[in-house]
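Much of what follows relies on a compact textual record of a protein's fold. Here is one such record, which you should read through line by line:
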Amino acid sequence: MIKEVDGEASVFGADITVEADCQAIVETCVARYGRVDILHNNVGIAAGDADTVDVTEANWELLMDINLKGMFLTIKHVLPVMRAQGAGVIINISSTASLCTRPTMLAYKTSKAAINAMTQNLAIENAEYGVRVNAILPGLMDTPMAIERRVAEQGVSREVIRQERDEDVPLCQKMGTGWDVAAAAAFLASDDARYITGVLLPVDGGLSARVG
């Protein structure tokens, strides 16, 4: 998509839970482009959560490693670059699940709530360097991760899952898409948001307002 609009894109295969890989991501970006202006942390999973007494230690660690530890590691290695530049933007993808309580979502909710806390702490810690840190909290989204997992777990059609999720959204009773999150990220990364840091931005069609 980037190349279709005459942009330049690179791909780097890495394991987000391995610190050496996260360091290599940053080093490769600096080697190719000379700087890092934006870090968009979008890696995350939700599979395997269960009732608290049924959550395995391995699954808890997997969710925390991918959703939280990986984000911390990329930030750890990009911050020296951004601080030296005197500018940079970090955008972390959290979830409105961090704000609400649902059965069988303990590990996922905990990982996302920790992202919120980390985001706000980083925003204050790095403000003096001109580095902005914000988080986006997507609500009910029409994405493969959200839909396919529920189809497999509940044994019903995609249409049934989509209808149920659509009906839960206050705004036009329609789930959002990845493009809605992308638009929010593009804004937060832009100079239009130059005075915004430490914000947890729901992109959820009003879902979190109803929770509040």
Q: What stands out?
A: Helices lie at 19-33, 57-85, 106-126, 144-154, 158-167, 178-189, 207-211. The first helix runs from residue 19 to 33. The first strand starts at residue 38 and ends at 41.
